[in-house]
Queue: 4 jobs
Job 1
Amino acid sequence: MTTKIFTSPRDALEGLLFDGMTIMSGGFGLSGNPESLIPEVRASGVKNLTIISNNAGADGFGLWMLLESRQVRKMISSYVGENKLFEQQYLSGELDLELNPQGTLAERIRAGGAGIPAFYTKTGVGTMVAEGKPTEMFEGQLYVRETWLRSDVSLVKAWRADPAGNLMFRKTARNFNPNMATAGKVTVVEVEEIVPAGSFDPDCIHTPGIYVDRIVLSTINEKRIEKLTTRTRDEG
């Protein structure tokens, strides 16, 4: 059996990247970003990328790197705040943006992984989100049709993997990562730990290995805090 485990993030992306491709990248804010794989996408020099991700990282971190190197042509996202470079490139016309309600983005990705080409939702009806999209009445309510999202490569950050690619995610780093793992033609996962086969209780597996093509140990695990809020310790 061919191993799914690769020796470095660069090796894990070997032969997968090309100009004009679509990449899904997990994460929510600074939690669960594939922070070891993104620098290798940048180093490859590929350009005109379409990136599907909740947001585009924060200043100096995550997908911000690909914006800074002008490798991204289009973002399909649900949140554009906290990233001045994202804002500047969009307002200047350098970057195309397809803005989605957050739940709609998550469901479009899940639908892509489940093989469901389209679905209907009330979210966005009567707003710019619904412009140009088919609508239909269900039980007296108007719904807008949304289509699936799929990628050429999905970049995922997980906590643990076994050699078969079964994954466990840790707390909020789970966010968009499990759905994105199902929606890529090829799914590359960086993990904090690779455990021996048979280590997982089957009931504790968040993503089955059938969805995972390549695994690599993370080389970067910064776990940055986006906004640090503190209070004075109570006396006594």
Job 2
Amino acid sequence: MGREVVAAAFNIGKLGIWSWLDSSSYTEATEFAAATEAMGYTALWVPEAVGRDPFVMLAHLSAATKDLYLATGIANIYARDAMAMKSARHAVDELSGGRLVLGLGVSHAEMVSGLRQHEYQGPLTAMRGYLEQMEQALYVPALPQRSGPVLLGALRDRMLGLAAAAADGAHPYFVTPEHTARARKILGPDKLLAPEQKVLTIREPGPARSVARQHMATYLGLPNYRNNLLTLGFVAEDFEHGGSNRLVDAIVAWGDEHTIMARIEEHWQAGADHVALQCLRHDGEPGFEMDTVRAFAPRNGG
């Protein structure tokens, strides 16, 4: 089914769940993590923006799971300095037996300068320096016996190049299978590539696109995502009125299970080792649609 995993050092499985868990209690999040593992998903991805600390969440979930990889998609490098990030990484790896997938990203100027009141630097320079600082940072306790991979939230060519040179791969977000093909070419055959894909099991075009536009609104206002989409052949008109049908359909795979599964297969065929599904709620609110999670579960035939 699709392309065989080629990443030599790390195999995190082929299908995971990317989910905003801030609308769930810690008890509900624990139940969700255990359920996704039981359904055969191999990784659970959580973001970092304006909610809970992702490392606290993943450390908590590590006790309720056995083999599930626990991933940040992404951890903001402006949220903690390189020494603190290294410490958090080792702590979760120690608690989980090396199941942390550390996705790192530069976030967005609006989030960093506006909300966090930090100086937003050039993304490539900031990430390169941060990785070097993490490597050199002092860590006194014994290292965990096993450590998971470090991935960059990379979109455009130069950040993907840095992911190839200085990390274990990339976790692109808000992308298409065409981007996956480009990312694989830049990363080369041996780096881990784990794109996020939004899915919505509403079959009628009007309601599906309405919910998709509601979800996409924030992202379309962020230059990092817009600029990346422009390199994929979209034009300024595609961003108007909440996004053209062409853009909405490219970002959100909606419809019946066969149609959505075909999109997942496109990512695998384009070079993805792992696809992180974000199962959008039918009401457009943050969180996950549990019926959709079940529908694509590997142990349910998904």
Job 3
Amino acid sequence: MIKSELVQKLADENPNLFHRDIERIVSIVFQEISDALARGDRVELRGFGAFSVKHRPARVGRNPRSGEAVHIEEKWAPFFKSGKELRDRLNGEGRFTGAAKLDSEGFGD
């Protein structure tokens, strides 16, 4: 699902709200999550999961083509940990409804 599909679904379920207001609400929610992560805060959405930031220290990597050592700068990366309700829903009955089920190797039927 992309952002415009989310906005459309919310608009369909809430005909009393203007489409432009729903777009603004969704944008504000995403912006607040981004701002909180940029400050180093953790964002928790009960039943869904938690967003946090992980520090990746500087290290020495290798250029895969030449094998030459390459310095990789430190960086901060967003991290998402799913909540128990989301994991249960994904692993319980009715998962992948409307989509092709995947076999044990991750391929569709």
Job 4
Amino acid sequence: MRFDTKIAVLLREDLATWQRLNVTAFLVSGVAAQEPELIGKPYADADGTAYLPMFRQPVMVFAGDAAQLTQAHGRALERGLTIGVFTEELFKTGNDDDNRAAVAAVPRDGLRLVGIAMHGPRSVVDKVLKGAALHP
């Protein structure tokens, strides 16, 4: 099935496996919070056990170097997308308040990005991520 929109995460390629997973989980939670219409209905198994709902469309995960992250960040903002960011500093914080303070302490051009997430029209997201490869 082809969707008109795309949910995408771009990760810095040199992250450890646990960091990639952690950053992806945090970033897509922001997409879900910002765009609740992307969430489907709850699941249930044949025994009636209830499970959480999930996104109604795939989340595409890409990898790139620091320069590609910076470039995609700029492209996304130029095109009016609201994005999520995860910076290196967030690996050293332990709660949401400290996370926000760490991001707020750095000007946009100085952010040391390790991941960004976005949702938008497929063609726009594709242009933002031009040059990034699907995560292996």
